[in-house]
Amino acid sequence: MEPNMSNFQSHCVEISMEVHKVVTPPPKSTFEKLKNRLKETFFPDDPLRQFKGQPLKKKWILGAQYVFPILRWGPDYSLKLFKSDLVSGLTIASLAIPQGISYAKLANLPPIVGLYSSFVPPLVYAVLGSSRDLAVGPVSIASLILGSMLRQEVSPTKDPILFLQLAFSSTFFAGLFQASLGMLRLGFIIDFLSKATLIGFMAGAAIIVSLQQLKSLLVVMANYIDGFLLPSLPPFDETHIFGEPELCKSTKKPKLFWVSAGAPLVSVILSTLVVFAFKAQHHGISVIGKLQEGLNPPSWNMLQFSGSYLGLVIKTGIVTGIISLTEGIAVGRTFAALKNYQVDGNKEMIAIGLMNMVGSSTSCYVTTGAFSRSAVNHNAGAKTAVSNIVMAVTVMVTLLFLMPLFQYTPNVVLGAIIVTAVVGLIDIPAAYQIWKIDKFDFIVMLCAFLGVIFISVQDGLALAVGLSIFKILLQVTRPKMVTLGNIPGSHIYRNLDHYKEAVTIPGFLILSVEAPINFANTTYLNEKVMRWMEEYEAENEEKTKQASLHFVILDLSAVSAIDTSGVAFLKDLKKTMDKRDLELVLVNPISEVMEKLQRADEAGEFFQPDFLYLTVGEAVASLTATMKARSSQLLS
Amino acid sequence: MEPNMSNFQSHCVEISMEVHKVVTPPPKSTFEKLKNRLKETFFPDDPLRQFKGQPLKKKWILGAQYVFPILRWGPDYSLKLFKSDLVSGLTIASLAIPQGISYAKLANLPPIVGLYSSFVPPLVYAVLGSSRDLAVGPVSIASLILGSMLRQEVSPTKDPILFLQLAFSSTFFAGLFQASLGMLRLGFIIDFLSKATLIGFMAGAAIIVSLQQLKSLLVVMANYIDGFLLPSLPPFDETHIFGEPELCKSTKKPKLFWVSAGAPLVSVILSTLVVFAFKAQHHGISVIGKLQEGLNPPSWNMLQFSGSYLGLVIKTGIVTGIISLTEGIAVGRTFAALKNYQVDGNKEMIAIGLMNMVGSSTSCYVTTGAFSRSAVNHNAGAKTAVSNIVMAVTVMVTLLFLMPLFQYTPNVVLGAIIVTAVVGLIDIPAAYQIWKIDKFDFIVMLCAFLGVIFISVQDGLALAVGLSIFKILLQVTRPKMVTLGNIPGSHIYRNLDHYKEAVTIPGFLILSVEAPINFANTTYLNEKVMRWMEEYEAENEEKTKQASLHFVILDLSAVSAIDTSGVAFLKDLKKTMDKRDLELVLVNPISEVMEKLQRADEAGEFFQPDFLYLTVGEAVASLTATMKARSSQLLS
């Protein structure tokens, strides 16, 4: 694919072009640069921009609205909106009550704590949160993690009071951690839980939970078959319950929506009635038992800020905090994108964090915005956070008056509710999509999945996150560097491996570096440049001696940053080239790279005229012309 | 700086251009891609390329030469080369003997271990190593680390035998770790010790060592002044010793070279004579004392592979291993670059690792190629690894016959030798250079420096490495994304902030992403694109309604990789744009990005004709033409 020299030259004459200068970027002080960097790191969303140029009073109002989003939509709230919110609020309440009880059991906590947790946190969120669709309450994953991490050191059956104390304390630390992430504007930390990690993690957790629940279900079935204890009882509702459509997919099946949304409550009511009617609790069917009526008792006196379990509690708090935060933020963003409004990540973190801190002192455990219930909320037509208030009030009524009704609810139905909710977390199509697009992401997903199942919840997660970070580091350590060729009939230069029609230019080695140049990759880049030069010369030796290597062009367009090692690499490379009688040419360095090169180049040997070009095309054209001029001088 | 529309259009007509297609990259199987990726990760230097196409016998010879580089230069070895090597070997021996004794004391080991370590390892390296200038032996930094890490758990004075056992075992694990890095081709791990980290670390270590030694020096001085014990003794040689030129700088001062290279030995001889003559050892001057004659006793029976200290020994081995490896490889590369030959990093690691493993079973502690002695070796004219053999033989002779001579060598001289060697590690000009070029690197350096001094050797190092990695992650999480404008009179588009003459094109928002798009930054990128669009529209509202936003061009030239989250981000962005009646256009995706987009795009909605362009210039020209055609159709 290599054209001969004369061909290329005539082509150059055809499209003659002006040479543009690479200019020095406008000067900025270190302070200005630091300010910009900090702003981009911590305030990329520029949260204060709406305050700019407003009168003082307006600023106060905006400030209050910023802290309490309820003040933004509250004044315009109408009866019409309330009708929608009432329906959706009642709908999610019908889900929240059975799920709350079930998830509390998943966390090895008394069932009533699940109801407490569906009362206070939604009220707090309604005031502070900025999502309109988030349905707040306990969620399966966080419940599982909380329960399994605490159980490693304390038995929930032998020492239930201590276990409860640790659960509330963990909730407090989860909230503190979440709120701190938001306040310190470190929200980007949750970005490190990639989609692949989460899909694998949730599927693994779902399988653990399902196996746990199936085990107790099988015990019931075994009892039932084995002893013929209940010959008159119809074969229960398991199949019906397992057969109900997954909640998560309810967004896609609006026709079956009301069925699926109502199923858990209907199951609970029916099974409770059956147990009550047949007095099945005396025949080996375990039931919830007596629940205390009344609202959340205070629990701030149960929080533990010292003692031998402090480490466990903080660790559990951080892990459940980050996982539940990820779910809450992701749900919020998903529905905000659907309805085209903005959710401020850092503000949401503060809201969810405060909600958990308040919750921990009112007998609630970790809560967040739940995937499944938020989808139901959205489909049931929720317009504002009032649907959370409606749900909370419904739960309150339940807590005050309806607790005796749950006395006969069989535990097995709760298990079925849990399983139904969690199997929806296993997302096979998404896993297939990941396999198709990116194999490494698939490995990360698999690690999270297998790690959660075979090692432990927190280690599986840590493994997947570690692997994701390792991938990023590997990309930096082994950056892409490609050889460019000319697309015939243009001044465009592109990757020779990708564009098969591209041709090499005799005498030129054109390389493009596609990563920041830093300490982690200078050795590699150096070796690679050397190897390419050797290969070029080896190839040339086979052919004629005529067109040997004269210029090495380094296209730095894609070098987004450079550090001291990177600068040293470029300086050393220039020295090596000089020794070999080759010319090194840099193309289109961005401002940061340009500045650092200049600062490192006191002697001025580095920035000679023929050293910097704005495009590869211009560099080749100009250098070819110089070369021709030189050789004709030599000849004449 | 915004030209009006008509101006730009006329300019477009002036430079009309052909539109080039973005082609699908040639298909490659997953296996092929995996193979390539693995090759670039582990075999970037393609170590087997010289074997290609050779006959079998030649392959065997090449293979043997690959494993034992001595076979490559051995057959051509001449008397002339030997003369050079003899001189340089004797010179470094004159350094190695006093330094060996001193560094062993720094590591809290018996002085003779330092001599043992200057005998066996150089011989092993001479056979296996590929550097011609490396002078092998104990070094100050590794000695310091070994001593201080082991001393945290075992006292060298109370339990000297155990301490020695642990030192040999640590050496074994250091060697094992080094050789494994080389065998597994994980040599890039040492790249994570950036130049900034090393400069800070070495300066911190130098200060610790100097303070330690100065303390004992001051004790001697205090004794001397306080008790008038040695009124007849001249005020010793401290000032002379401290005044001797730093060894590290000897490369720059060839005139004083022989003086500086010989100074340690001369100091030792002179001070020993003085002590002997005045019987100063009886007057409060501590001396080395009796040393056992004879060669290295075997020590493989002292290695500990189990027991309560195993963890300590492995940790110490890894830390000293990686630090000494970094020094050895860096020294090797530096002198290879000076003399224009190649040093294979992974092979060097195996050589250094085996050398330490052999050493650990022959009473040697951690050794590597020393900065200062290699410089002396180079300057004294060393040509091959034979200079190491000469040095080893000289040390052997010393061990066999000259040990009684060192009996009266005062410890204080050894301290002075250590201090002289380590103050050369404090590199103020390099620190200033780092401050000038990259402030963040300077912080990393400072952390290493202060961490080593105020926390501990290993924590200071871990802190600096952690910070360097954090910087990389931060760059990925908050990637550069800039708005581009047209450089007047060309089809070139560059950063508007850098090129002040660049102008925006009405109706277009042109963004360039300069980092891989992945899970860690999609949220940020999304927020940023949205904000820019809002700003664009806000600005336009102030002006006329005429030229509102039509096209968002995303220049992906610098996006070197993408993952599933990144693909999802682009898909979502396209959906959002469609909703807002804007057109999203991608420019110049590299082959990996292109492929993944295609695989994610089953419906084909994504790859419509007007969606992909090869350059920003062509995209703007073509889209402007389409827009004009459309509006003229509407008008007619």
From TrEMBL, chains A, B:
Pfam families: STAS (PF01740), Sulfate_transp (PF00916). The chain crosses the membrane at residues 162-181, 187-209, 256-278, 309-330, 384-406, 412-435, 442-470. InterPro entries: S04_transporter_CS, SLC26A/SulP_dom, SLC26A/SulP_fam, STAS_dom, STAS_dom_sf. Keywords: Membrane, Transmembrane, Transmembrane helix, Transport. Residues 498-623 form the STAS domain. GO terms for cellular component: membrane. The keyword Cell membrane does not apply. It comes from the Eukaryota. It is found in: Membrane. One of its GO terms (molecular function) is secondary active sulfate transmembrane transporter activity. Gene3D superfamilies: STAS domain. The keyword Metal-binding does not apply. It is a multi-pass membrane protein. This is STAS domain. The lineage of its organism: Eukaryota, Viridiplantae, Streptophyta, Embryophyta, Tracheophyta.
